[in-house]
Design a protein that fits this description.
Mean pLDDT of chain A: 91
Number of strands of chain A: 5
Largest sheet of chain A: 5 strands, mixed
Helix content of chain B: 25-40%
Number of strands of chain B: 10
Strand content of chain B: 15-25%
Strand order of the largest sheet of chain B: 5-4-3-10-9
Largest interface: A-B, 26 and 38 residues
Shape of chain A: globular
Order of helices and strands of chain A: EEHEEE
Low-confidence stretches of chain B: none
Distance between the termini of chain A: 46 Å
Oligomer: heterodimer
Helix content of chain A: 10-25%
C-alpha cells in the first residue's frame, strides 16, 4: 500500500493512502467525545470519521478545551 | 420578605439562571487540580476555557474535562488569542463541535501590548455568531456607544473591561460602566483587569450583574483564599447594591439621638 504524508496539528505524519480518519484518531488515542476535528479547514462530523479517507497533504486539526481566561 | 428576595436574585444569561455572579477563568494556574480547587472555593458556576490543539505526542497528558466536569460547571469557550473575525469564528465553531456549546465568550483583540479589544472586528463577529445561533457574551471596551451597538447586533451579555487584561488595576472608568449598565437590558459582566476582591465589590455596587476574574485569583499568593474572597466580595457588592445605599451629603449627621442628652 502506498504511503502518504499528512499534517496533524502542524506535525507531519505518514499514513497509508486511503486509510480512514477514524483509524488515525484511534492510533493517536484521541478521546473523540472531548475534541473537535477539522479536515482542510472544514469541521468534520465526529460520527462520520470512519467514512473519511485520508489523502496526500490533508491537514487535520484536533482541538480541545484547556485552561484559559 | 427580604430573605426571599436574596434567594430569588439570580444571574440570567441567555435565559439560563445562575446563583453565582462570579465567573472565573481557568488559565494561569500551576496545575489543573489547583484550578479545579480554586473554582470550588470561588463557587463559580461558569468558567471560561480556551480552544487549543490536542498534544498528539503526549497521549497521557491530563485533560481539563477530567478535572472540571462540564455537566456540573458551565464551560464558556473563549476566543483568547484571536486577532480577527475569521479566527474567532473558526475557534467558536470548533468549540461548539466539541460538545454542543452555544454560550460563548467572544474576545477579538487588536493590540498585543495592552490586549485591548478590536471593536470593529468584535462587532462584525457578534452579528455572524448571533445569526448562527450562538449565545454570545462579548468582551468590549468600556464605551457605552459600542456596548449599545453590540446589543443591537444580538449579543447576550456585555462584558466591558475594568482595565487591561491581567493588569490588576481595578475599574478605571466607573462612570462609563454605570452608563453601560443603565442603558442596556442585557447582563453586564465586568471582564478583565480586576486585582483584588474589593474591585469586584465595587463592580457589583455599580450595578453590574457579575464579574469575570482569572489572573487576580490564579496568580494570588494564596489562590484558594483569594477565590473565596472574590466569592464573598461579589455577594457583598450585590447585596449592597440591592439594599439601596444612602445619599451622599457634605456634612455630618449624628448616628445617636440628640434628644435627651444629659
Amino acid at each position: 500500500m502506498k504511503k502518504i504524508k499528512i499534517k496533524v496539528n502542524g506535525k507531519v505524519k505518514t499514513v497509508l493512502n486511503n486509510s480512514k480518519l477514524h483509524d488515525l484518531l484511534k492510533n493517536l488515542n484521541i478521546p473523540i467525545k472531548k475534541v473537535a476535528i477539522e479536515l482542510n479547514q472544514e469541521i468534520i462530523d465526529k460520527k462520520r470519521t470512519s467514512n473519511i479517507k485520508l489523502k496526500k497533504d490533508d491537514k487535520i486539526e484536533i482541538v480541545h478545551f484547556i485552561g484559559g481566561g | 420578605m427580604e430573605e426571599d428576595n436574596l434567594k430569588k436574585d439570580k444571574l440570567i444569561i441567555a435565559k439560563k439562571k445562575f446563583d453565582s455572579r462570579l465567573i472565573v477563568g481557568t488559565g494561569k494556574y500551576k496545575s489543573m487540580s489547583e484550578c479545579a480547587k480554586a473554582i470550588k472555593f470561588s463557587g463559580a458556576e461558569i468558567v471560561t476555557v480556551a480552544v487549543r490543539r490536542v498534544n498528539i505526542s503526549d497521549k497521557k497528558k491530563p485533560l481539563l474535562m477530567d478535572y472540571i466536569d462540564p455537566k456540573k460547571i458551565t464551560y464558556l469557550p473563549n476566543t483568547a488569542g484571536c486577532f480577527n473575525s475569521i479566527d474567532a469564528l473558526r475557534t467558536l465553531r470548533l468549540a461548539r463541535e466539541i460538545g454542543g456549546w452555544k454560550l460563548v465568550k467572544l474576545e477579538v483583540l487588536g493590540d498585543k501590548t495592552n490586549l485591548f479589544p478590536d471593536m470593529i472586528e468584535t462587532l462584525k463577529t457578534t452579528e455572524v455568531l448571533a445569526k448562527e445561533g450562538f449565545r454570545v457574551m462579548v468582551y468590549c471596551n468600556d464605551d457605552p456607544l459600542m456596548a449599545k451597538r453590540l446589543e443591537n447586533s444580538g449579543a447576550d451579555a456585555i462584558m466591558p473591561l475594568a482595565a487591561p487584561i491581567g493588569s490588576g488595576l481595578g475599574i478605571l472608568n466607573k462612570i462609563n460602566v454605570q452608563i453601560i449598565r443603565k442603558q442596556t437590558k442585557l447582563p453586564v459582566i465586568i471582564d478583565a483587569g480586576l486585582g483584588q476582591a474589593s474591585d469586584a465589590t465595587i463592580a457589583m455596587e455599580l450595578g453590574c450583574d457579575g464579574v469575570l476574574v482569572n489572573t487576580a485569583i490564579a496568580k494570588a499568593k494564596k489562590p484558594f483564599e483569594m477565590a473565596l474572597a472574590f466569592k464573598n466580595a461579589v455577594i457583598a457588592g450585590r447585596q449592597s447594591y440591592n439594599s439601596g445605599r444612602i445619599a451622599k451629603i457634605l456634612m455630618g449627621s449624628p448616628s445617636s439621638p440628640t434628644e435627651g442628652i444629659i
